Amino acid sequence: QAAAAAATPLALGASVLAACLIGIHLASSVPTSLAGVATGEGLTPMALGVLILLPLSAFESTGPLTQAGIQLERSRQSAARVMALVDGAGPPEEAPGGTDRTDRPIHTAPVTMRIDGLRWGRPSTPDLGPADGVSMRLPPGGRLIVVGESGSGKSTLLLTLAGLLAPRAGVVTCQDDSGDPVDLRAATCYFAEEGHIFSTTVRENLLVARGDATAAEISDAVAAVGLSGWVDSLPDGLDTELVGGAEAVSGGQRRRLLLARALLHPAPIVLLDEPTEHLDADDAARILRRLTVGDGGLFGPDRIVVVVTHQTVAQEISGSEQGCRLLEIASVAATGKTVGNAGG
User: Where in this chain does the record put each ABC transporter domain (predicted)?
Assistant: First the structure.
């Protein structure tokens, strides 16, 4: 804020100073005030015009200093947070079988997710979940809707299920069809609420999920989330560059684009944080229903899908869809009891 406040006066001061210097230089050749305008000596009409326009042009060129100051402060704060993480990082953990997690390939075969006595929370916050933890089994094709008020810990639970936060109690594991353990992170696709949109083409933004996706697969994913009309309206279609990243799209388009990215990801466990945010009520309900359907839905019948949402229609959907379960985080936090596990 301080940098932003200082940038505009600085730009104005630079413009005035430049104008004064040019004016002094030009006026030094004028014998008697502005008499040179009439006699053709000293300050000519053209020079006078340049002198008048100079402050405006100088201010225009220094105007971006405001945003530069803001971005400088944001970058400084971001760098401080990144370095704090780097300084506190320990050695890389090893996945089952002794393979470094960073080198482990994505697991694409169906898995079963087991949640046993899970309690969760962020550093320096109280534990969330019932006293005896949340326990459930999600087989291939399992669907779970997590609902709750804002700030109730839904996103924190999703980060824990993704293996990005350590559980406060209990464990989250997954096994393949033969019962062998599978690294949780290698089998998980996490859809963050504020997922990043890169300042590149629409196609490249989708290929982030899977670099070998074909043109047909990309088109199918775009159509499945309702973005075909928007893509067709772009100057270069999928090859149109999104200048500024997320600033080039609306909130709803961003959500659909991130959802299309999740569709292309091959991981068997899909964790979605508020995928229908910024969509109108009808579209949100329609997409949420397609997310929780095994056969004929957005995701295949062998993939596990966990959806975090505050949409009130979620209770109705979980009760009507076979195999879809519901976990109400608000009730868990308030009463210490797991409420509304339905079906499956």
Answer: 113-342
